[in-house]
UniProtKB/TrEMBL annotation:
Protein family (similarity comment): Belongs to the class-I DAHP synthase family.
UniProt protein name: Phospho-2-dehydro-3-deoxyheptonate aldolase
GO process annotations (BP): amino acid biosynthetic process; aromatic amino acid family biosynthetic process; chorismate biosynthetic process
The protein's enzyme class: transferase
InterPro entries with a match to the protein in the record: Aldolase_TIM, DAHP1/KDSA, DAHP_synth_1
The reaction(s) this protein catalyses: D-erythrose 4-phosphate + phosphoenolpyruvate + H2O = 7-phospho-2-dehydro-3-deoxy-D-arabino-heptonate + phosphate
Role of this protein: Stereospecific condensation of phosphoenolpyruvate (PEP) and D-erythrose-4-phosphate (E4P) giving rise to 3-deoxy-D-arabino-heptulosonate-7-phosphate (DAHP).
Pathway: Metabolic intermediate biosynthesis; chorismate biosynthesis; chorismate from D-erythrose 4-phosphate and phosphoenolpyruvate: step 1/7
Recorded superkingdom: Bacteria
Keywords: Amino-acid biosynthesis, Aromatic amino acid biosynthesis, Transferase
GO molecular function, one term: 3-deoxy-7-phosphoheptulonate synthase activity
Organism: Halotalea alkalilenta
Location of the DAHP synthetase I/KDSA domain: 49-339
Length: 363
């Protein structure tokens, strides 16, 4: 069909475009391979069992708020892999490898967007660095997690992930719910930034359904994608504008809201963000409270999240950067992270022993 419509010349401010590799091209350059692929499948199955309550260990998503330096990220991952083997009777550690950052207004958007940290936005390199780094972390034996922010970016690394988050700013988005519906891994939906958990409950339901939606295929062509529905999702309590929501009353309220909605009561507590009042040093206290609730019998608590880096605090982009310090939200330093996780594991061990002794006495 011909049209008389003439297309106006693009104004000077019109956005320009630059080609990026397709998912298939990036995967060909940085393949997963059968060994790592089996490892991811095993990690996903373990996390699924934890989320479902069939494995009573606590899942811990821990690592930098964002990754901006692959050397520091791997240094962190090596320490985490060593710690993981010391606590794996109680805790399953999953590394936060966040390469995309949702911003409240504007700011650095993550390694994926601006890997050189200078506003040059070399996204082709960002894609390569991000996939390559996640693969390195996986080589160390750690499960990898990230926040899936841009649906088009997800396919570049979703095969490497054992767990993913949909953030507080996107949980209400239909497009993100469709994305999750097509992922074969456990995913946490955060409560909204205002603290409301209703949107996360709606998201869990929407993502469990099959969908047909717009997307791109592995070769970069527009495609109608069909998803089967993801049953392995859960709520993440991250606090909100009115304060934290990790206390026993809030967790109980959340559990009842999930049950009322006919959804499984599976909860992760994010010890950071509004639950720590954005003070990273408060995270161990939040974690300790979650452990206390678990020991008191709150079995909907299946997982926690911590923002942690080699060094504590945060620094601004612009000044000469200090090694191992976050350039987004403040993080707990490594020593305090290690101490908090060792203590959590020890308290859970003690709780199990006490429960075993009690059941022996009753029998
Ligand atoms: O965890 C990260 C931040 O809280 C989130 O990306 C929002 O950051 P901003 O409010 O600094 O933009
Ligand atoms: C942005 C994050 O969290 P939230 O969506 O809870 O703000 C995050 O975990 O990095």
């Amino acid at each position: 069909m011909t049209s008389n419509l003439s297309i106006p010349a693009a104004p000077a401010s019109e956005r320009s475009s630059l080609p990026l590799p397709s998912v298939a091209e990036l995967k060909a350059r940085l393949p997963l391979g059968p060994t790592l692929s089996r490892r991811v499948a095993t990690q996903r199955a373990t996390l699924r069992r934890i989320i479902e309550g069939r494995d009573s260990r606590l899942m811990v998503v821990v690592g930098p708020c964002s990754i901006h330096d692959d050397r520091a990220a791997l240094d962190y991952a090596e320490r985490l892999a060593d710690l993981a083997s010391r606590v794996d009777d109680q805790l399953v550690l999953v590394m936060r490898a966040y390469v995309e950052k949702p911003r409240t207004t504007v700011g650095w958007k993550g390694l994926l967007y601006d890997p050189h940290l200078d506003g040059s936005d070399d996204m082709a390199t960002g894609l390569h660095f991000s996939r390559s780094l996640m693969r390195e972390i996986l080589h160390l034996g750690l499960p990898v997690s990230t926040e899936l922010l841009h649906p088009m970016a997800a396919g570049y690394f979703s095969d490497l992930l054992a767990w993913a988050a949909i953030g507080a700013r996107t949980t209400e988005s239909q497009i993100h719910r469709e994305l999750v519906s097509g992922l074969a891994l456990p995913v946490g939906f955060k409560n909204a930034t205002d603290g409301g958990i209703g949107v996360a409950c709606d998201a869990i339901r929407a993502a469990s359904h099959p969908h047909r939606h717009f997307g791109i295929d592995c070769d970069g062509h527009p495609a109608m994608l069909t998803s089967e529905g993801n049953p392995d999702t859960h709520l993440v309590l991250r606090g909100g504008r009115n304060g934290p929501n990790y206390d026993a009353q809030s967790v109980n309220d959340a559990r009842m809201a999930l049950e009322r909605a006919g959804l499984p009561a599976r909860i992760m507590v994010d010890c950071s963000h509004a639950n720590s009042g954005k003070d990273p040093l408060r995270q161990p206290a939040v974690l300790a409270e979650v452990i206390a609730q678990r020991l008191a019998g709150e079995d909907s608590l299946r997982a926690v999240m911590l923002e942690s880096h080699l060094e504590s605090g945060a620094q601004s982009l612009g000044a000469p950067l200090r090694y191992g310090v976050s350039i987004t939200d403040g993080c707990l330093g490594w020593d305090a992270t290690e101490a908090a996780l060792l203590e959590a594991a020890e308290r859970l061990r003690g709780g199990r022993l006490a429960a075993k002794a009690e059941s022996l006495m009753l029998s």
